[in-house]
Design goal:
- It is a single chain.
- By secondary structure, the chain is α/β, with parallel strands linked by helices.
- The chain folds into two domains: about 240 residues, ABC transporter transmembrane region fold (Up-down Bundle); about 230 residues, 3-Layer(aba) Sandwich (Rossmann fold), CATH 3.40.50.300.
- It has a six-stranded mixed β-sheet with strand order 6-7-8-3-9-10. A four-stranded antiparallel β-sheet has the order 2-1-4-5, with no helix packed on it.
- β9 and β10 form a beta hairpin.
- α16 crosses α18.
- The longest helix has about 55 residues.
- It binds adenosine-5'-triphosphate.
- Adenosine-5'-triphosphate binds next to α13.
- This is Subfamily B ATP-binding cassette protein MsbA.
């Protein structure tokens, strides 16, 4: 119930929808009922039981009761027959009333559906946007614990589940109880005795349905989790198809997929079978009641009882049959809702995830720095083991620091904690003496440009990829950045130049071209601090030269931390920091370190650097 209430909260303010919805629904129900009530005069006319037409009939005095409306109808009904002099014309009159009622009832239903569509779309759009907002604000640490497939499944399937299950259920739960109440009122009006029979049926079916729905909820969780796994395997396969085929691992991946899919199919089958059970249960219970009704009511009519005549009994049965559908709808809605509630819980689990990287209420602005960046006694761990241990490092403005060391030494982690992708566990990183956690997060990150090993581009134009996040950027400035990054020439040769869409993750470009675009992006951003994960190893010599030249220009007049893979970069570094198992083991210039005959010397000898 709590989840349901919270979900409704995404459609607030509810008073924009509910009163309007109730009014349209009531119009639909009342005119729908009048429509069926027309059966009584219709049958009376057809079976020629109209009887004597009274000479004068007083216009009934207004009161808000069924009797008033019945009398009003009779008044016009008999007046019509009297005026036309034929009972046949009474048929036309009744048919005309039915036509008008059907039109109004359907207009009411249509309008109420429109209100619900509005509510539904508002709620879903807010949910999707909140999820996306959360995705963009969750810290990196969150993503190493979650799989992409799970998160994508939440954005697509879980939101879809809410659309198809919860919202339809809300629509039914806000409409069908009114229908049942209305029809029950009419049934009581037509025959109290018969109606008392039917009431027994409702609590019995209610109990059965609630049992089935509880079971469904457990299975719902499980099936969505398995669906997330299916998406995961698919996503991995699509992005790694080259590797899968070259390692001839197709069979292995197919087996992996089939195994998850098999489990998902099994759980889904059981769940759908259980869901389908709700409908036959209520149908059987309903038919049993109808049989009892027909026997009891039919006997009254056959015996010529004063309590019931043929036309009223027939109408009664029609009215009763109209209750069956909404009753069934409600029971189905309650069961399907469970599935939707499970989906909502999965969404809320993400929305409630802790954003551990936050800024303080009175965070300081920062747009530039004057002196230095310092790592003061910094320790950090992802999970249990310290990945960085008591790091002391000062980077003066304008310096280029090269981080070197074996794989897993902690170099990338050193770079990741500067823009606060992760927060340090101990110690502090300071810019001009102020802890970076004191600054506005947006300001801090705006000061830092990152060029990573993997060229990450977006499915957009070249222009928008260079001026990423700045839709109104000056075209000339973008072209200028591209020229510095040695990217202008190849961009000009693209189909639509700077306005060319570069495809999913820039797949239409070569590795070197992609890398030069990311460099142009960093040049355009023009940040005072640069983090460079040197990424030239995957490129051929020609391409490498172009990228290197672009990088050299990018580094000019900036404070740079390079995770260095190349001797040519390292040689020019102001200071080389040699890391090993989370510790700074050696530091100094290239010449100084070579003389020390330590780790660095070995790395160079082993030709770890090209
Ligand atoms: N998201 C993460 N969750 C848990 N552990 C991590 C995570 N990222 C890195 N590690 C671990 O932290 C240690 C340091 O990793 P880091 O990426 O900083 O090393 P590196 O020196 O940059 O290595 P490489 O040169 O191979 O990129 C490694 O042991 C790695 O397994």
């Amino acid at each position: 119930m709590k989840t349901f209430k919270r979900l409704l909260g995404y459609a607030t303010p509810l008073h924009h929808y509910i009163p309007e919805y109730v009014i349209y629904t009531l119009i639909g129900i009342i005119f729908g009922m009048v429509n069926f009530a027309m059966l009584i005069p219709l049958l009376t006319v057809i079976f020629n039981q109209v009887g004597e037409v009274p000479n004068t009939l007083p216009h009934p005095a207004f009161s808000f009761s069924i009797n008033y409306f019945v009398d009003l109808f009779n008044y016009y009904f008999y007046s019509f027959i009297r005026a036309s002099g034929s009972k046949q014309s009474a048929l036309y009159f009744v048919c005309a009333v039915i036509g008008v009622c059907i039109t109004i009832a359907n207009a009411g239903r249509y309008m109420s559906s429109r209100v619900m569509v509005r509510l539904k779309m508002t709620m879903l759009s807010r949910l999707r946007n909140n999820l996306y907002l959360k995705f963009t604000s969750l810290p990196m640490g969150y993503y190493s614990q979650q799989t992409k497939g799970d998160l994508l499944s939440t954005m697509t399937n879980d939101v879809q589940e809410i659309e198809s299950n919860v919202i339809n259920a809300i629509q039914i739960l806000l409409r069908d109880p009114f229908i049942i109440i209305g029809y029950f009122a009419a049934l009581f009006y037509l025959s109290v005795n018969l109606t008392l029979f039917t009431i027994v049926f409702f609590p019995v079916s209610g109990l059965l349905i609630s049992y089935v729905s509880k079971k469904l909820k457990q299975k719902g969780w499980f099936s969505q989790e398995l669906l997330g796994k299916i998406l995961n395997v698919t996503e991995e396969t699509l992005s790694g198809i080259r590797i899968i085929q070259s390692f001839t691992a197709e069979r292995f991946m197919r087996d992996k997929f089939s195994e998850v899919d098999h489990r998902f199919t099994k759980v889904s089958k059981a769940m759908y079978n259980q869901r389908e059970l709700a409908s036959p249960i209520s149908e059987i219970l309903g038919v049993i009641v109808i049989v009892i009704l027909v026997i009891y009511g039919g006997t009254l009519v056959l015996n010529g009882s004063d309590l019931l005549n043929g036309a009223t009994f027939m109408t009664y049965l029609v009215f009763y049959s109209q209750i069956m559908q909404p009753a069934k709808n409600i029971s189905t809605a309650i069961t399907t809702m469970q599935k939707g509630i499970v989906a909502s819980e999965r969404i809320f689990r993400i929305l409630d995830a802790d954003i551990s990287i936050t800024e303080k209420p009175n965070a300081l602005p920062i747009t530039s720095f004057q002196e230095n960046i310092t790592y003061n006694n910094v320790s950090f761990k992802y999970e249990q083991h310290d990945v960085l241990k008591h790091i002391q490092l000062t980077i003066k403005k304008g310096q280029m620091i090269a981080l070197v060391g074996r794989s897993g030494a902690g170099k990338s982690t050193m770079a990741d904690i500067l823009p606060r992708f992760y927060d340090v566990n101990e110690g502090a990183i300071r810019i001009d003496g102020t802890d970076i956690r004191e600054f506005k997060l947006h300001d801090l990150r705006s000061m830092i440009g990152v060029v990573s090993q993997e060229a990450i581009l977006f499915n957009d134009t070249v222009l928008n990829n260079i001026a990423f996040g700045q839709p109104d950027a000056d075209r000339e400035a973008i072209i200028h950045a591209a020229k510095i990054a040695n990217a202008h020439e190849f961009i000009e040769q693209l189909e639509n130049g700077y306005d060319t869409f570069i495809g999913d993750r820039g797949l239409k470009l070569s590795g070197g071209q992609r890398q030069r675009l990311t460099i142009a992006r960093a040049i355009f951003k023009n940040p005072p601090i640069l983090i460079l994960d040197e990424a030239t190893s995957a490129l051929d010599t020609e391409s490498e030269k172009l990228v290197q030249a672009a990088l050299d220009k990018l580094m000019q007049n900036r404070t740079t931390i390079v995770i260095a893979h190349r001797l040519s970069t390292i040689q020019f570094a102001s200071e080389i920091v040699v890391m090993d198992q989370g510790l700074i083991k050696e530091r100094g210039t290239h010449e100084q370190l070579l003389q020390q005959d330590g780790i660095y010397h070995k790395l160079v000898e082993m030709q770890e650097f090209k």
